[in-house]
């Protein structure tokens, strides 16, 4: 192997990064609590439970992450050893705090819903006065997949909201955005400053978890250059290296940024088959200091998550134009176990294929009755 990349986290994102790294003669090693994790089949796991941080740091040439809540003190230990991590620590620190994230968007003229910091009950009352109702209250740190959130629709709910979220101490109150759809833009920046962007994904959720993504997002020709401009601003400002994701709301007033993820993203899994160079390969290329590949899409795709329960594998594979990716995880409600990318030879068959697959999957897909892609 020519190079070893150390990755914080050993979930499916690490697994798919390592799968993309192998053909480039790049080995991945992982720092992760669970030694039986999805990445374990692809490289050694250094257990974070057994205090293996030092040996993990010694085992690799350069570092990255697949877990955005990677503790900053662990990154600091690595930096003190004069090792490099991509993306940069600053990007990670900002992405771990919704308030810093929103402040950065504002500073870079990327539109966001009006927001305020909330540190006590009194602040919620004043946020209601200033922003009006409804507002979305979120914990500043640690929330994911819609957890650590409360939609406040009436003043009667203020006490309940504080009861549920107040332990987190630092919250953010945002105006409720009346969006028509949710999209995400994924981009990669190389060590030489080269930036490449994949097409926008339109994302659909079920019970707060990503159910499926349609790529390119339908009717998004006018949105693509704007989203591209926003994410490029972020990448350049942060002197970022690697893949960055920006989640956005589509509103009548234009795009509003919701949050960024300093890593490869579920809404980019389609790119393994659907793009010339996937988010995983380009991330590895960037971290290794190699030239980036083209992010152009080959054909329209739908990426569907397998959540909670496995489908019958033979039933899925009997459909023409499907690519199945399983993560070697055990079944549990709400858990992402794998994904399926639909890429029929004839793209006009995408909707039909999607509906056929929806009948096979044990968990309901957030498909609308009149869905056309
Ligand atoms: P987040 O954890 O910020 O990604 O939020 C999870 C989901 O909550 C998003 O995908 C949206 O569907 C919804 N959401 C978050 N923030 C807002 C907001 N300010 N207005 C309306 N919906 C929101």
TrEMBL record:
One of its GO terms (cellular component) is cytosol. Pathway: Purine metabolism; IMP biosynthesis via de novo pathway; 5-amino-1-(5-phospho-D-ribosyl)imidazole-4-carboxylate from 5-amino-1-(5-phospho-D-ribosyl)imidazole (N5-CAIR route): step 1/2. It is an enzyme of class 6 (ligase). GO terms for molecular function: 5-(carboxyamino)imidazole ribonucleotide synthase activity; ATP binding; metal ion binding; phosphoribosylaminoimidazole carboxylase activity. Residues 102-288 form the ATP-grasp domain. It catalyses: 5-amino-1-(5-phospho-beta-D-ribosyl)imidazole + hydrogencarbonate + ATP = 5-carboxyamino-1-(5-phospho-D-ribosyl)imidazole + ADP + phosphate + 2 H(+). The keyword Protein biosynthesis does not apply. Gene3D superfamilies: 3.40.50.20, ATP-grasp fold, A domain, ATP-grasp fold, B domain. ATP binds at residues 98, 138, 143-149, 174-177, 182, 205, 258-259. Catalyzes the ATP-dependent conversion of 5-aminoimidazole ribonucleotide (AIR) and HCO(3)(-) to N5-carboxyaminoimidazole ribonucleotide (N5-CAIR). Catalyzes the ATP-dependent conversion of 5-aminoimidazole ribonucleotide (AIR) and HCO(3)- to N5-carboxyaminoimidazole ribonucleotide (N5-CAIR). NCBIfam families: PRK06019.1-5, purK. This is N5-carboxyaminoimidazole ribonucleotide synthase. It comes from Acinetobacter nectaris CIP 110549.
């Amino acid at each position: 192997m020519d190079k070893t990349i150390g990755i914080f986290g050993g979930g499916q994102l690490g697994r798919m990064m390592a799968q993309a790294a192998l053909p480039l003669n790049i080995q991945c090693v992982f720092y992760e609590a669970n030694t039986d994790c999805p990445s374990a089949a692809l490289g050694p796991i250094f257990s974070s439970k057994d205090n293996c941080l030092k040996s993990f740091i010694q085992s690799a040439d350069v570092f990255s992450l697949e877990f955005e809540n990677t503790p900053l003190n662990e990154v600091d230990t690595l930096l003190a050893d004069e090792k490099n991590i991509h993306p940069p620590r600053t990007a990670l620190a900002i992405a771990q705090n919704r308030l810093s994230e929103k402040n950065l968007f504002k500073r870079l003229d990327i539109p966001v819903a009006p927001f305020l910091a909330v540190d006590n009950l009194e602040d919620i009352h004043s946020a209601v006065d200033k922003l009006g109702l409804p507002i979305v209250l979120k914990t500043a740190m640690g929330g994911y997949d819609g957890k650590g959130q409360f939609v406040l629709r009436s003043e009667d709910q203020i006490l309940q909201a504080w009861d549920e979220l107040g332990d987190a101490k630092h919250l953010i109150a945002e105006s409720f955005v009346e969006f028509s759809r949710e999209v995400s833009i994924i981009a990669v920046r190389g060590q030489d400053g080269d930036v490449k962007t994949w097409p926008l994904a339109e994302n659909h959720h079920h019970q707060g978890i990503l159910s499926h993504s349609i790529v390119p997002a339908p009717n998004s020709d006018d949105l693509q250059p704007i989203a591209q401009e926003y994410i490029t601003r972020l990448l350049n400002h942060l002197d970022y290296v690697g893949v960055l994701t920006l989640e956005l709301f589509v509103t009548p007033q234009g795009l509003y940024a919701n949050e960024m993820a300093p890593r490869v993203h579920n809404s980019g899994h389609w790119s393994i088959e659907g793009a010339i160079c996937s988010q995983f390969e380009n991330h590895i290329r960037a971290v290794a200091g190699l030239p980036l590949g083209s992010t152009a899409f080959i054909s329209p795709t739908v990426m569907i998550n397998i959540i909670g329960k496995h489908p019958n594998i033979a039933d899925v594979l009997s459909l023409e134009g499907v690519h199945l990716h399983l993560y070697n995880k055990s079944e549990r409600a709400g858990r992402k176990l794998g994904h399926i990318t639909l890429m029929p030879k004839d793209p006009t068959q995408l909707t039909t294929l999607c509906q056929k697959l929806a009948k096979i999957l044990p968990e309901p897909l957030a498909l609308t009755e009149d869905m056309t892609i």
